[in-house]
Amino acid sequence: MTRNVGLAGAASLFGTQLNNDELAALELDLYAELTSVSPYDDALRTLERLKRAGLKVALCSNLATPYAIPAKLLLPEFEAYAWSFEVGAVKPEPAIYEHLLNRLGCKAPSIAMIGDTLEADVLGPERLGVHGFHLRRDAIRGPDRFASLIEFADHILGMGTVTRT
Questions:
Q1: Residue 34 forms part of a structural domain
Q2: Does 31 fall in a domain?
Q3: In what order do the strands lie in the sheet with 145-146?
């Protein structure tokens, strides 16, 4: 996920040779997977709401190269992107968050980040001073933990529907 390569390039990195039929079959499977990608119901509403409030919205992701295409097509345009395959680092490595901070032109304490992986989306960013929040869609709420992006937006925008302890 730190290299900007497709399936053939990934196979080469792993020292695997694929014949044309094998590569074509894998590419078809990949394209079927890519067409199935869709955002969560609350994602688009939350992003638009945060943007309407005047906040910069960015994406920091460990996606493999092909998955960036549906992400860009399905989600509204972000002010900044930090793709692991472009940065050459994966979350929770500091370089990916530093890239995002530079692209946004912001200091770490002014950033709030949410994601579904504790180490990559909360603890890693917090080591640099970014406020990390854990998205737990299984409805387990707690300090710095939200069950939906709507709850996160409410908190960030100071609407008080989620109490941070």
A1: no
A2: no
A3: 112-115, 131-135, 145-146
